[in-house]
Design a protein that fits this description.
It contains 8 helices and no strands. The protein is mainly α. It has 2 domains: 88 residues, Rna Polymerase Sigma Factor, Chain: A (Orthogonal Bundle); 70 residues, Arc Repressor Mutant, subunit A (Orthogonal Bundle). Helix 1 packs antiparallel against helix 2. It is globular, with a radius of gyration of 17 Å.
Length: 167
């Protein structure tokens, strides 16, 4: 094993795997997204030195693996042929007063791919704009603009009014 300790790896997996699966879901089905995330953690074990920015490294690795998996399409196509059932929501059931998860998932799925990716990385991935810029290989300013544009589109699609502060 590389220089990352087993306990540390376990903590990273417990803390980030769910978010990374959600991130990969924008390109893959649930099972393939889970496979990609597990493969990325195997890659992490093999690293000689742990990455300096672990969250950003994990997101970048998941992104690359998911896009590669989508391009080949072979496993995804087999699963879709055998399991034509509807994909379960990747959101949890909403609490009282919360947004409708299916409506939110549909609205998120209608965003352009780049904006959807940035919104997912920021909100569910917990990455900073600088870290996202490294993941998607873009400037921080472009990432911020895409994030704002994506949120504005989500608000419109979901009928949520944006309250702005005038202080």
């Amino acid at each position: 094993m590389g220089s990352i300790e087993v306990n540390e790896l376990g903590r990273w997996f417990e803390g980030e795997a769910g978010r990374l699966v959600l991130y990969a879901r924008q390109w893959l089905d649930q099972a393939a997204a889970e496979d990609v995330v597990q493969d990325v953690f195997v890659q992490l074990i093999l690293q000689r030195q742990p990455p300096h920015h672990m969250k950003a490294w994990l997101c970048r690795a998941v992104r690359n693996a998911a896009l590669k998996h989508r391009r080949t399409g072979d496993r995804r196509q087999r699963r879709e042929e055998h399991y034509a059932a509807a994909t379960p929501s990747c959101f949890e059931s909403p609490a009282a007063g919360a947004i409708d998860a299916r409506h939110a998932e549909t609205a998120l799925g209608e965003l352009p791919e780049g904006e959807r990716e940035i919104v997912v990385l920021r909100i569910w991935g917990g990455l900073t704009f600088e870290e996202i810029a490294g993941v998607v290989n873009a400037s921080g300013a472009m990432v911020f603009r895409s994030y704002r544009r994506g949120l504005e589109q989500l608000r419109r699609k979901m009928g949520v009014l944006c309250q702005t502060k005038t202080n």
